[in-house]
Amino acid sequence: MLWFNVLLFLGIGISVCASYKILSISHISTKSHYILSSRLVEEIAKKGHEVTFITPYPKKTPFKNVKEIGLEGLQDLFPEGSMFAHEGANPLQKSFFVNQMQYRFSEYLLSHEKIQNLMKSQERFDAVILYYYLNDAMLALAHHFKAPVILFGSMPLYASENFLLSFPTQSAYVPNIVTEHTGHMDFWQRLKNTFYDHAMALYYQHFMLPKHAKLVDTYIPGKPDLYKMLNNESLALINSHVSTTEPIPHVPNAIEIGGFHIDEPKPLPKELKQYLDDSVNGVILFSMGSIVRSAHFPEEKRKALLGTFSKLKLNVLWKFEENLTGLPPNVKIMKWIPVSDVLAHSNVKVFITHGGLLSTMEGVYHAVPLVGIPVFGDQKMNMALARSYEYAVEVRYTDLTEETLSRAIDQALNNPKYKRNIEKRSKIMRDRTLKPADNALYWIEYVIRHQGAPHLRYPGADLNWFQRNLLDVVGFVLVVTLLPLVAATLVIKRMVKKKNKSKTE
Ligand SMILES: *[C@@H]1O[C@H](CO)[C@@H](O)[C@H](O)[C@H]1NC(C)=O
Ligand SMILES: *[C@@H]1O[C@H](CO)[C@@H](O)[C@H](O)[C@H]1NC(C)=O
């Protein structure tokens, strides 16, 4: 009887907490990308799975169940310098820049001794989670370990990525990252959007993919063919949610987990909590995120900011990475701020942000109206959407003066619609069947339980792009309807000619 119980216990134990081995690859060294990847790894490890984590920021003491492979050199590959320089750059140039950067990341990672050694080892993985953004060469790692691929990203799925993944292309209602549109576009905007989507996808497909294929050929044992690995992902985990990004149709293996990085608020450091508690007139939190450094604001913009702040009754808490003297008494700078935890404090009334997606989600989660100063990447688009949902006031970086900023803060603070709308969005974000992190875990385990998820692959993925978009059908219909018309016109013309001829004879 005892033995039976022990066996039963073991059996249940095994079936309840099957522990899997997962390789998670995160190569981008910007903080927001790292935060997302690291949070996901933490959640997976908490469930008792063993994770090998390729990361640009190895920890001194990794989470339990996590083995880290540190590629610190990736940090140096990210371009130095002020991101304000990119404000207003040509969209295609920006796209070109990002493509080259992703290629360098891919080359660095695959050629690295630690990754080469990992491939030579006898390690086996049940799944590979790949941070995916124009870095197809890295798919070869999953191929090498014969494991299903789970793609993971920090942004919603844009149409050009949909195109590359053979998902339905959505240029009609998903704005390209370089535009400042929402999903509601007029004809000319849709035309422009279609152009950007396809120019970017085709550029990647024709100029970058062959280079990635060469990387795979050079660095992966057995020289596998990259083109056979494309569009073979079992799952795509997408950082979007209807509360902060627009509702769009997804294929069945694309799962939205937007907001999963937001934790229950943690207790604040004592001094910071005291400061927030004491700020009885309210606090404005000001953070430009991690890539755009506040210290890079030019002198004239910094003057405008401080001039605005000095006239406010509220306190201003500013994430500023360097020392700054001569601050007005109501402005406090800190090199690092736990943004989400501060937003949870009831005295925080307005959040001035660069409009990055994670910050936007945190502002919405905690229902703090936004003033956005977007600079690059998806920030302008995020703000365009936030404006259309009326929970943010935008100030153009180029128009940033004491006057425009004061007016924006006044609006966000005193026009009740901003608070009302962001509270509504916050409720939407929190109302879900499963917590987004639990949902991610469910799907990761699902893919492993089924050894990949080919049963979720929609048939459209096996068509080429003109078939998928019915261009062949449209072409056929055009030909079939036009041919008789053309033929009829020709016949009539000839008859008229003949008649004229017979008249003149
Ligand atoms: C495609 O994915 C399946 C399922 O995960 C895997 O078995 C197969 O090896 C993959 N194909 C390639 C070419 O990597
Ligand atoms: C800022 O001030 C602190 C304390 O006075 C000092 O230790 C630090 O080196 C300064 N940093 C810079 C970038 O000037």
From TrEMBL:
Single annotated GO MF: UDP-glycosyltransferase activity
Which positions, given as ranges, span the membrane? 473-492
Protein family (similarity comment): Belongs to the UDP-glycosyltransferase family.
> PANTHER family from the xrefs?
EG:EG0003.4 PROTEIN-RELATED
Domain of life from the UniProt record: Eukaryota
Name listed for the protein in its UniProt record: UDP-glucuronosyltransferase
Going by the UniProt record, its keywords in alphabetical order are: Glycosyltransferase, Membrane, Signal, Transferase, Transmembrane, Transmembrane helix
Q: Which Pfam families match?
A: UDPGT (PF00201)
Q: Which residues form the signal peptide?
A: 1-19
Does Transmembrane appear among the keywords?
yes
The record lists the organism as Zophobas morio
